[in-house]
Amino acid sequence: xxxxxxxxxxxxxxxxxxxxxxxxxxxxxxxxxxxxxxxxxxxxxxxxxxxxxxxxxxxxxxxxxxxxxxxxxxxxxxxxxxxxxxxxxxxxxxxxxxxxxxxxxxxxxxxxxxxxxxxxxxxxxxxxxxxxxxxxxxxxxxxxxxxxxxxxxxxxxxxxxxxxxxxxxxxxxxxxxxxxxxxxxxxxxxxxxxxxxxxxxxxxxxxxxxxxxxxxxxxxxxxxxxxx
Length: 228
Ligand code: CA
Known about the structure:
Blueprint: E1 5-9, H1 13-25, E2 29-33, H2 36-45, E3 50-54, H3 62-69, E4 77-81, H4 86-94, E5 99-102, H5 107-123, E6 130-133, E7 136-139, E8 145-147, E9 150-151, H6 156-166, E10 173-174, H7 175-182, H8 191-205, E11 215-218, E12 222-225
Parallel strand pairs: 1-2, 1-3, 3-4, 4-5
Antiparallel strand pairs: 6-7, 7-8, 8-9, 10-12, 11-12
Helix pairs in contact: 3-4, 6-8
The structure holds calcium ion.
Calcium ion binds at residues 11-12, 54, 56.
């Protein structure tokens, strides 16, 4: 069995040790880099299947590191951020990070996030024609959406919003990314569009729109489609 090689970029020794120990115990092979420069060297020495990047690094901003790595890097990036780094966290997602964890986090949360990201990465780049999540079924080619056995009719805009989230089930998509891709680059500040159309979409898809099962809110960040 191939152990997942994970590069952990974290300068805080206790956090690095905790994360590395959790990943090792779960059968993964973590390497630790304490600076952005060390991370670049480590990646040159050997590729990693997944990167975990702390945003507060001593030698370089974590967002800059992610933005500079992303064009050449296929591997998913999980960001570790402090509660005070909300804006940087969103910037990191827009720069190409795939998901985030807010400190402090537990082992269970860390491993669930890492496993989901590795699973998605191994499925890419050819997603199955039919997406099934719980009682939701989406046919990517015919654009048919069914929930709890009944067809759901979406307006073109609702469809574009749903389809954008369905491109990467389980992955958070920021408000900015959704607005840019669904409404256009010049509409990225129109957060109310997103709220209104997400409300419409939930009313059609969710059994209880107030407690969504599929269309999940990432408070202050964006939305994600559940992946199981
Ligand atoms: Ca740090």
